[in-house]
Design brief:
The chain has 96 residues and is mainly α. The chain has helices spanning 2-23, 29-60, 83-95.
């Protein structure tokens, strides 16, 4: 029984090797290189899409739990007007 299983396993392995050789197709170097480049291109496109999705999700979920934090401080100060220039402007408006 053990001999029969070893013999059948050997027959299966040899049949697989013979069929693999008969199914192998000759491929030119150009076709092989084109297939490899196409595969690398598809992988790169997929990685870029995944990276963009990760960046968008990270930016969308970035929020601050302390909204009272001041990021900048803006102060507005009035520039004192010169009284002489104000009087001259008023006179020119009256004369028109």
């Amino acid at each position: 029984m053990l001999t029969l299983s070893k013999l059948s396993a050997a027959a299966l392995v040899s049949a697989t090797l013979v069929s693999a050789n008969s199914q192998a197709a000759e491929v030119s170097l150009k076709e092989y290189a084109n297939a490899m480049i196409a595969q690398a291109l598809q992988t790169t496109i997929q990685e870029i899409k995944l990276s963009v999705q990760t960046d968008i999700l990270t930016a969308a979920n970035a929020f601050d739990l302390e909204p009272n934090t001041l990021l900048t401080k803006v102060t507005i100060t009035d520039i004192p007007a010169d009284e002489e220039s104000d009087a001259a402007e008023q006179e020119s408006e009256k004369s028109e």
